[in-house]
Design brief:
By secondary structure, the chain is α+β, with helices and mostly antiparallel strands. It has two domains: 37 residues, no CATH class; 72 residues, no CATH class. The protein is 27% helix and 35% strand. It has two helices and six strands. Strands 3-4-5-6 form a four-stranded antiparallel β-sheet, covered by helices on one side. A two-stranded antiparallel ribbon has the order 1-2. A hairpin with a 4-residue loop joins strand 5 and strand 6.
């Protein structure tokens, strides 16, 4: 079970809903998707990773084209973001991506 923020309000979403509509972006048939929106998808990747920091690249897409991009750096020592995005939804998704990345790294050690 997860939460959807696409409409600007938090709505509970089942695992099936998330799998079918959210995981890849461009969920044009999702009932929570507003007609007017800032992005259709937000992509993340690890730009740099060290013992003290992890820097993520992000790209926000609309109609399959990038409209915004940047980097977010997380301080592993203090467990806090060093750089913030003005939209809380981007930072929340970055948190999820970072948690998954860190779990995979621990799994492979």
């Amino acid at each position: 079970m997860g939460n959807c923020l696409a409409s600007g309000q938090e709505v509970a979403a089942s695992d099936t809903h998330i799998r079918e509509f959210c995981n890849l972006g461009y969920a044009t048939t999702c009932p929570h998707l507003p007609l007017r929106r800032d992005w259709d998808a937000i992509r993340f990747s690890v730009a740099r990773a060290g013992r003290e920091q992890v820097t993520l690249c992000f790209v926000c897409e609309l109609d399959h084209a990038p409209i915004e991009h940047g980097e977010l750096t997380f301080d592993l020592v203090n467990d806090a973001w060093l750089s913030l995005h003005p939209d809380a939804r981007v930072l929340r998704l970055a948190d999820c991506y970072l948690q998954t990345y860190r779990a995979r790294q621990t799994h492979y050690e």
